[in-house]
Design the sequence.
């Protein structure tokens, strides 16, 4: 048996080394790298093949080679950061469907934290949202199966299923002494990317729930409708990005371009490869897919100048933060709300064949003024401090999160701007809710922050900007 393991290890070592050498030479050819490649990690490869051989020969039950290799790939990616992952054929297909706005499941954005599934944000108008699932909830059981020991992909697969079938989630929630149980009925999740309404004549409300394939076109239709419905010239717009988990990059550029001057810088990225270094502008070649008509040309010209407020919170992530950062840096819109999630890393989908792929973090996002979004987020101009804001889950709370830039990766500490209360006191205007209130539907008549945004727009139009009382506490 020892000879068998030794032979198998040598064979596997040779195969893996050959694959790595092939990949290295391919990288040289594709990217014309001038620097000398690092040597192969011989000892680590030897350890891998020995472990593989031992499992094949000594594990209590026979294990399929494909399963072992797949789990090894999963381990490599999961160990990097919270957003890199291996996608099998089913997951790859679901990812493609999800960007088109329709998929099956419960309607929650999740990540893995300490072996448990943590809720980043429930998606509006879904079973999870209606049941009362909240950001920061820890899912500890799925029906009778403990989440501990499952991978994130395995947990997600269990939550998905045929429409009209039920699943019970057992949740640990901060502030609750006992686990909570929620029985949800699965449904086809159809996400309405853009919602809108005329709050009152001259003041429009636009909400983006997720950045999908047709978000740009849908936004144009919503804006045109608002301008037609208003009986008076448009005096102010509120763009609501709260609890928007992000989505497609080109859609984020399109939304930014709708309000910014032509060819204004929207976002840029920095990574190790030339492909990962991008500068995206408010121009058709950076938001259109294919050679279709530029749908932004039909927008009323006033949309570029009408006063704006952009609403954000801790559930605003990725593409939402790109839009908020671009509008803020170009002084096109006041940003109001709470510190955003801080998901400022770029994931590239790299197909592997057999309808599988890897989702690999390849770059970091930066706002036009050079501010890193990663693990920091966007700091609002007017901060709305609520009782729940300090407990909001953010990127910096996730295990293995990337720091905001290379220097911080080397040892500096990444601190969200909003964590320094005394600094914010001098730089930001703040409002504070008097008491903790139950969650309300965004855009409804009970939406307090929307009301404050409309008040701010009216004060701008009246030439008397409101000066909210600062409620920042002195740092100790």
Sequence:
């Amino acid at each position: 048996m020892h000879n068998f393991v030794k032979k198998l290890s040598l064979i596997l070592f040779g195969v893996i080394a050959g694959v790595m050498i092939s990949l290295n030479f391919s990288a040289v050819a594709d990217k014309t790298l001038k620097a000398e490649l690092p040597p192969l990690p011989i000892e680590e490869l030897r350890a891998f093949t020995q472990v593989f051989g031992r499992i094949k020969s000594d594990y209590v039950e026979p294990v399929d080679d494909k399963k072992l290799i797949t789990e090894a790939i999963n381990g490599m990616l999961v160990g990097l950061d919270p957003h890199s992952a291996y996608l099998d054929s089913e997951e790859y297909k679901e990812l493609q469907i999800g960007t088109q706005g329709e998929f099956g499941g419960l309607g929650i954005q999740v990540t893995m934290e300490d072996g448990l599934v943590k809720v980043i944000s429930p998606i509006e108008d879904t079973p999870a949202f209606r049941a009362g699932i909240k950001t920061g909830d820890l899912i500890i059981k799925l029906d009778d199966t403990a989440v501990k020991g499952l991978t994130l992909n395995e947990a997600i697969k269990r939550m998905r299923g045929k429409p009209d079938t039920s699943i019970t989630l057992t949740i640990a929630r901060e502030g609750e002494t006992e686990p909570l149980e929620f029985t949800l009925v699965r449904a086809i999740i159809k996400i309405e990317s853009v919602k809108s309404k005329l709050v009152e004549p001259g003041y429009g409300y636009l909400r983006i729930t997720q950045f999908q394939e047709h978000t740009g076109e849908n936004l144009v239709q919503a804006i045109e409708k608002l301008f037609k419905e208003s009986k008076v010239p448009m005096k102010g717009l509120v763009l609501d990005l709260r609890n928007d988990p992000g989505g497609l990059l080109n859609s984020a550029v399109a939304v930014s371009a709708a309000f910014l001057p032509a060819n204004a810088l929207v976002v840029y990225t920095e990574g190790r490869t030339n492909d990962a270094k991008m500068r995206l502008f408010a121009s058709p070649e950076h938001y259109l897919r294919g050679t279709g008509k530029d749908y932004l040309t039909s927008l009323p010209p006033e949309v570029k100048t009408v006063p704006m407020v952009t609403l954000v919170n801790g559930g605003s992530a990725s593409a939402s933060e790109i839009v908020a950062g671009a509008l803020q840096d170009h002084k096109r819109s006041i940003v109001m709300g709470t510190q955003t999630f801080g998901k400022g890393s770029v994931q590239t989908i790299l197909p592997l064949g057999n309808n599988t792929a890897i989702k690999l973090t390849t770059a970091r996002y930066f706002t036009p003024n050079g501010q890193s979004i990663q693990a920091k987020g966007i700091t609002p101009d007017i901060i709305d401090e609520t009782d729940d804001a300090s407990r909001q889950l953010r990127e910096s709370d996730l295990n293995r999160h990337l720091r905001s830039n290379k220097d911080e990766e080397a040892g500096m500490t990444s601190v969200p701007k909003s964590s320094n209360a005394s600094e914010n006191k001098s730089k930001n205007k703040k409002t504070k809710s008097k008491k903790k209130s139950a969650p309300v539907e965004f855009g409804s008549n009970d939406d307090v922050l929307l009301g404050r945004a409309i008040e701010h727009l009216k004060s701008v139009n009246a030439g008397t900007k409101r000066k909210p009382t600062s409620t920042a506490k002195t740092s100790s």
